[in-house]
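input
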Amino acid sequence: MTIDPPTSIFTRDLRKTCLSLVKLLSKAQPSSRGRTKAARQPVKSMGELPIDERTRRGCAVPEVHSIHSALTTCSEHSPILKVLTATSGGSAAYRKDERVALLSTDRGESTGEDYQDIVRQERRRRELQKLRAKVRAAQGRWEIQTNPLDVDSDQEIDEMLDISHQRTIGASPGDEDTPLHGTGQYEDFHTIDWQRDIARDRMRHRNVMKKRGDGIWNLLCGIQDAWSGWLCVLLVGIAAGSIAAVIDIGAAWMKDLREGICPQAFWLNREHCCWANEASFEGVPCNQWYNWPEVFGSNLSSDSYGFSVLQCLFYVFWSVAFAGIAAMLVHTFAPYACGSGIPEIKTILSGFIIRGYLGKWTLIIKSVGLVLAVSAGLSLGKEGPLVHVACCIGNILAYAFPKYGRNEAKKREILSAASAAGVSVAFGAPIGGVLFSLEEVSYYFPLKTLWRSFFCALVAASVLRSINPFGNDHLVMFYVKYTTPWAFFEVVPFLLLGVMGGVLATIFIQCNLRWCRFRKTSQLGQYPIIEVVVIALVTALLSYPNEFTRMNTSDLIKVLFSQCGIGDVSPLCDYKRNFTNVNTPIERAEAGPLVYESMWRLGAALVFKMLITIFTFGIKIPAGIFIPSLAFGAITGRIVGVAMEQIVFYNPNFWLFHTACSTGEQCITPGLYAMVGAAACLGGVTRMTVSLVVIMFELTGSVNYIVPLMTSIMAAKWVADALGKEGIYDAHINLNGYPFLDVKEEFEHTTIAQDAMQPRRGENKLTCITQDGTTVQEIEELLRTTGHNGFPVVVSDDNPCLVGFVLRRDLNIALATLSTQDGVTSGSRVLFTSVAPVPWSGPPPLKLTRILDLAPVTVTDHTPMETVIDMFRKLGLRQTLVTRNGKILGIITKKDVLRHIKLLANQDPESVLFN
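output
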């Protein structure tokens, strides 16, 4: 029985059906009873066999009632199967450049049973030569070669059957899962596909596990693959701790260089130069340290007006010089080295690609520029830039491990661990660093990343503390030891500090955003070096007269956190007390005149610090916001603490104070208020909560004061969220237009997918590619005239049923790689199917099945946008396709989601710059 050839396009599933029939024949062994049972069994119906998706969409499926009819059907599409079903005289003849090779027998019509007889006879005589076909594109003709092979191998029968598919350029047996070189990567300012990269890594891991039993070398490779992540974070931690120690030591030396030098050993800062003199008391003159007027032979007294003027001039000169050099280095060699870096790190960890932002030049210039910027005395910190430095280290070291260097999603696991190490070395707070990475910067944070981040932060902190750049006996940045526990009535002033911290943070954020927006839209942005020099000049001139602004910001915070003792000579400790014994508890005392004078100076310092930081944060040098924010809150808290102390002193019998302050001992610690205020202000600026509490008690070593810290931080966050929803980092992300989809924001609108998809109703039709009807020239023209990131692949223009999705970059690479092969012309069709359409004439087609995503994420046009946004957030999608009844309607990208959210919030939807 014969049947007409089917009109459908036979693809991979039908090919496998034909292949299974040939295998069935080849496995039949000769016996005394003749044919095997398997060879006698007919194939019931093609309906029981796998059918291609497109066949189910309306293509007729012929019935095949015997092996012979099945071979006849398949032979219409495979020259080698024509060999199995053709009839002729008595020998095998193979002719070059012929479409059909005839295998003749001495029998009449050939059947599957006849083929088994031929195989048996040829095996006995050992004269049968196996078929091994290579199909090459040679002006549309077949080249058939013969080699002696063993027909008994099923794998070789697969190779025989693959002759018809090798005619398609770019395909070869066994290459279906082999990616083209360069595909799967991403271009600059694009978003990664989390699901695709994670799936690629799982496939890679399965292949590694399968090969572990093939030999000792593969076993070792599997072991190396398993611990490569731990080794990578170990190296990141060591490098981050070492570089942070060098930065701290260099900044400590250069900031003292503004005031003088140690002639006996110029590489020492003032603390180390005068170590013996200042080991016990502060403010004692040091003979080994020379101020700059003394170095140049000035005979002026250190108390004279002329000496102060000269000292101020040297102070201003070095400040401006350091800041100017830092700005020139950043502007010339690494523009990405400016700023804090945390907004960009958050964006990168969410899946955005910014080439060069984590490169080696950025690492070098950021490290050197950070030393210069901090030494210049500007109102900035090094904590945010240290996170950027650590992430640069993580990115560079990730390329030493292909598991992470070649997979953007896996690389972000290393970057999350590196960000934890950055905070760990910035504050000496490893646990706080892990929580900071989890709470503030990371977008994808699985459990194994948590453990590796913990390990990386631990290593970084250990390396840093072994070098001990803080220069004191304690291994924390702002060590405090309060002798008085906090009282319950102090919850009220702690809440007040939280409210004040939230208000100050909101004022700072709004003013800084307005200034940064003005800088971006005005001529000022074209002169970044001049801006830095001017700000450094103003900062140095205005900060020098006030001792609280002249000193380094970290030193100021340390002074404000401290508790007054018997050996303190600071004006903040000018109380009317008589210390007769160091072991005697500190009693309540009235504040002296220097304390009130210091309060006025601290108030002026607060106003100056806030104003100058508004203009400083965002200039083109490395600049963090942690330390300035701590300074705002510490100044506020110290003022409130002194006020509370004096209120209690003058009203000791008030019912609220009577229980805790009835003994006459000091029951209020102004330093504690400074610490609580610092945490509140930093929490309001950054919107951190849990991680900030842990960082603060690691910073100070004061575990007993977690409740006051938690109270003020929560109050600050509530107030700041009520006045403005964005923290400083999220505000700068929106200002720069980065496509960051915040997982903490809720979508409260009732729109659906068709409201956000592109194109909208009434607009031009979505640009699609057909699975077998588009030529190379048409695709090249499509890539040249459009800027889309990818294209849906459909069955045909008349039948827009979705087949898959192909990325623009993968298309470019595939065309550049495969179109240079022989036979491919601009008129060649591009196939996203397994076989060429039948009938077929013309130049050989270009097969690009391997770059097609056959399972893109899709939603219907009536899917709620709340669900769509959750999919983008939780699955890390790059885009999703919108369909109706299986037919493509549009596409929603991450940029479209962000624009839709901004449009509903009455904001400019075009402010999202990149995708």
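quick obs: The chain has a mean pLDDT of 78.
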